[in-house]
Protein 1
Amino acid sequence: MPTPKLSSSMFIGMSGKDIISFGSGQPDLPPPKRVFKAFSRFKNFKYGLIQGNLNLREALAEKYPKSTSDNFVVTNGASEALDLTLRVISKIGGKAKNKVLLSRPYYYTYPYLVKFAGMEPVYTDSIKGRINFDDFKKKIKDCKAVIINSPSNPTGRVESIDTLKKIEKLTSDLGIYVLSDEVYKDLIYVRENYFIKGPHVITVDSFSKTYDMCGLRIGYLWSLDRELINKITDMKAHTSMNTNILAQEMAYEATKTPRSFIDKQLKIWEERRDFIYNGLSDMGLDLWKPEGAFYVLPKIKNSEDFVWNMFKKYKVITYPGEWFGVKDRVRFSYALDIDKIKEGLERVKKHLKSIKVG
Ligand SMILES: Cc1ncc(COP(=O)(O)O)c(C=O)c1O
C-alpha cells in the first residue's frame, strides 16, 4: 500500500496494545504529589479572572525579574499563549511587515498559528539545529516578530547564550517582538536556562512538560509590556475567557514544589536521552545529541515512507520531519520508559536492516 498523506491528528494521543509511541511529546512521569492538594480545598466553580488566578500569578511573579502579577496572563497551555500573542501582535502597527521569523526545523504548530493570525511565516534554516545568526540578521529586518524556541522541539538543541544575547540586542534595537517559547526551559542537560529579556519580549511557558500536566492545559505568558498584556487579556475575554480554575490551583501548588522534583526528573530524561542517542547512533544514523527537551531528529531518507512502515509493520509511531519543515529527518520523542525505548529501537533496527538508509 502506498504511503498516505500523514497528518499529526492521525497519531496524537494514539496508544494501544503493543504500540510503541515515539510520537507525542507528552511526559509519562507523574506530576508533583502536592498538586492534588488543590482538590480538597476547591469548592468554587464560578468564572475566574480572565488574566488568571491572583495566587498563581503572584507565585509566578516571584520567579520573574521586575515583575508583579500584572505582567502575566494564565492561558490554556503555552498553545493559547502563542495564539493570543500572535493575533494581538498582528493588529499592532498596521499590516505592514506582518511577517514572523521562524527558525527551521520548527515546532509544527508555529506556521499554522502565524497564518491563523493573518501573518506570513518567514524561515531561516538552522545550521546543525541551531540558529544561523547571519541569515537571521538579514531576515529579521522585514519581520514584526520572531519565535525563539530553546531548547527546541524538534531538534533538542539549546541556543548558545551568545546567540541569545545578540538576538536580544538586535530585536530591541529594531523594536521587534520576541516570543520566547520556553516550555522546555527546565529540561536542559548542558547549562542553566538563559532567560531572554527586553521591552518587546513575551515569554511563553507551560506546566505541561516541567510538571507533567499536559492534559490540564495550563500555561502562561509574561511580558514587561503592560499594554500588550492588557490587549491579550481583552482578546482572551472574548475568546476562551478564564483558564480552567481547578487547573490553575493545581499549577499554583506546582510552583511551590521544591527544585529537587525537577532535578530528579531531569536525571531520568538524561538517562533516556543517552539511551536513545547511543542506540540510534549505533545503527549508523546521523543525529544531533539533544541538549534539552526530549526529542531526537535523525536523518532518514524518505521519512514519510519510514514513518508509515514503522507504524503499519512494526506498530511504532514516529513523526516525519516534513511536519517540522525538514524533509529526510524523523522525529522521535523519548517521553517513554527505557524498556519501551529499548523495544522500539529493536523494531527500528529490524526495519532499517530491510531498507537503505541515507
Ligand atoms: C515547543 C512547544 N511549544 C508549545 C507547546 C504546547 O504546549 P502546551 O501543552 O503548554 O500547550 C509544545 C507542546 O509540545 C511545544 O513542544
Protein 2
Amino acid sequence: MDMPVTEDFEPLMKRLGEIELYHDGEDWVEAESVWKRPLRPQAFPYTTFDSVTQSTLFNYSSLTMNRTLTALYEQDFLYLPAASDTIIQDLKAAYTTPLRTLANQLIAPLEEKVLGNLQHQVNVGGGWNKELFKCFLAEKLEPRGEAVHDSLSLIQSASDPQLMLKLLLMQHAVDFLPESSHMARFAKGDYGDAQSAVFRVLLDEFGYGKHATKHSTLFKATLKSIGMLDNSHAYWNFYLTSSLLNNNYFHKLTRSPECFFEYVGAITYAENSFGPYCGSVRNLLLQHFPDVDARYYTEHVHIDDFHGSMTLNEILLPLAERYGPSVYPEFVRGIEMSCLLQQIMEDDLCAQITWMNKRPLYRQLAMDIKHRVLENIENIPVAHLNEPKGELSVPHVHDGDEFCIVDEGLLRFCHGPDCFSDLSPGECVVIAKNRLHGALVLSEFCKYRILSIGDYRHYATYSL
Ligand SMILES: [Fe+2]
Ligand SMILES: [Fe+2]
Ligand SMILES: [Fe+2]
C-alpha cells in the first residue's frame, strides 16, 4: 500500500517552524544548547518540499527535509547538557507531547519524499542462496582502488588539510555523537538468538557500560583534542545533506520493525566496511594533527572487524538459516542502499571540499564576471538584502549558481566551517550550486544583493 502524502504537509511544517528550537541560532555553531536544531523556518513558505530525485539530492528542499527528519527522529533520543540550573524546565521545553504528535504526523511523508525515489532505484531479484550472497557481499566490500575514498585524497592535497579534516569530523558527528542509538531500538522486543547478538554488538559500542570507553566518548575525545566542540549537535549547521540522508536511512530502518532484515543487511555492510575506512582516517588525522586523540578510529579498525564478522555470522546468516532464502533479497536491498548512500556522501563531501578549497577562485571568478552579470541584471532574479549587525544567514544551499555582491557595509561570507571571505562594498563571490554557505553581517548594517544567475558559465570565459 502506498503511503498517501498528507495534504496538510505544509501547514504541519509551518507549525513545526514556530517552535523555538528550530529557529536560527546566533552563531555558526551551537556551543550552548544540546537540543537546538536550526531549520531556517523563515524559508518554509518558499520551499517546494518536492520529492527528492537523484538530480535534486543536494537541493535546498532536500537539505531542509533531511535536517527536519533528523531533528524529528531524534525526538526519542535523550540529550542532556553537561550542567544546568533549570534542567527540568529545559527538558520540558525540548521534549513535549505536541512536538511528538507533530513529529509523528511529519515523519512518514518526509521519509517518502526524502528516501522514496532512492529506495525505488534499488531493484533486487530473487534466486539467492548462502554462497551467492557471500560472493555478493565480498564483492561489495572489495576495495575499489584509490577511487573509494576520493574525499580523503582531496583532504590530503587541500591547501588547508586541517580545516578539511574538521569538516570531515563534523560529518562523522551526525552519527557518532549518539553512536549506535539507532541500533538500540532493535534491542527491544522478543525475537530469539539474533536479539542477543545485536545486544552484544551494542555492549561493545557502549564500552560495556564504562563511560570512558563508550565509542561516542572516544569520538568526543578526538574532537576535543583538536580544539572542536563535543556537544550534540554543535556543528548541526555544517552537516551536509548526504550525511543527514545516510543517518536518516538508519533511523527509518530501526523505527520500522518490518525493515529489520533490510537493516541487518545494511548494518552488516556498514560494520564490515567501516574498519578499513577508520584506518585511513586515523592515518590522515595523525599526519596533520600530531597531538590528536585518535583512539576512536584506532579502536574501530579492530572492533569493526569483529562486529563485521558478528553481524554476518551471528545475525545475518543464522536468520537466513532460520527463515530460508526468501530473506536474502531484503539483506541485499540494505547493502545496495548503504552502498548507494556511501557514494552519495562521497560525492557531496568531495564537492564541498572542492568548493571550500577553491574559495579564492570563486571570488576571482565573481570579479571577472561582475561586469557582464550586472549588465544583464534586468533579466536576473535579484534579492535585495539590508541586514543589521550580527544577522546570521544559517548555512544553506541553492539550486543553482548565485552571485553575491556587497553594496554597503561588511559581510562575512562563509564557504564552510571556519572558511570565510570578508566582503566590502563592490566585492563579490560566486556561490556554487548546491554548496553549503552562509553569511554574517559584521558592520552596523549591510546592504547586499544575491543574483540568481543559474549557471556562472553563461557569463564566464573559463570554468572552475
Ligand atoms: Fe562503534
Ligand atoms: Fe561497530
Ligand atoms: Fe545563500
